[in-house]
């Protein structure tokens, strides 16, 4: 699994003109599922993101996780994170998992965060979505469950 995690002061996702998810302070998580990703990758990603200490404490140090600041998570599936543009100019997306099993893993990631007591809003898997955000900091973290980066 791959994720782009952004600390935000607000974020929203719109599908066909309707807001389907919106948060104030928290994390916008763009998440992609690749071939071979499984429950181990899911557990790693859910735990890593929930525990990322990228919010400032009283001393101004990044020491707090999203739950520590009563923040929320906006989860948006984005298979293009598995795009490979090393050859040519048109990316290949063959490394992304097929839609049906990928949708299940994305949903289960949201459920894992909810089970930890976090508020989670979600986009619509496979839909054409418009995502807006105000990146706070800016703080952006790239994660890969295979630890490729």
Give a verbal description of the structure.
The protein is an alpha/beta fold and 149 residues long. It has a single domain, classed as D-tyrosyl-trna(Tyr) Deacylase, Chain: A. Helix content is 20%, strand content 39%. It is built from 2 helices and 8 strands; from the N terminus they run βββαβββαββ. Helix 1 packs across helix 2. The longest helix is centred in the last third of the chain and has 17 residues, at 99-115. The protein is globular and about 45 Å long. The model has no long low-confidence stretch (mean pLDDT 97).
Please indicate the count of domains. 1
Order of helices and strands: EEEHEEEHEE
Under CATH, the topology is which?
Answer: D-tyrosyl-trna(Tyr) Deacylase, Chain: A
Structural class per helix/strand content?
alpha/beta
- Poorly predicted residue ranges: none
Secondary structure tally: strands: 8
Tally of contiguous helical segments: 2
User: Which CATH class applies here?
Assistant: Alpha Beta
């Amino acid at each position: 699994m791959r994720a782009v995690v952004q600390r935000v002061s607000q974020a929203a996702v719109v599908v066909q003109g309707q807001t389907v998810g919106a948060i104030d302070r928290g994390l916008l998580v763009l998440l992609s599922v690749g071939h071979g990703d499984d429950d181990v990758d899911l557990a790693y990603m859910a735990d890593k993101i929930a525990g990322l200490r990228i919010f400032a404490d009283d001393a101004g140090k990044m020491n707090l996780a999203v739950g520590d600041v009563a923040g929320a998570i906006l989860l948006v599936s984005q298979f293009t994170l598995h795009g490979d543009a090393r050859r040519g100019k048109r990316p290949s997306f063959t490394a992304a998992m097929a839609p049906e099993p990928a949708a299940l893993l994305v949903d289960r990631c949201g459920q894992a965060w909810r089970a930890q007591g976090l508020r989670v809003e979600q986009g619509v898997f496979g839909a054409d979505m418009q995502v807006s955000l105000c990146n706070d900091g800016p703080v952006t973290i790239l994660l890969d469950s295979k630890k490729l980066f």
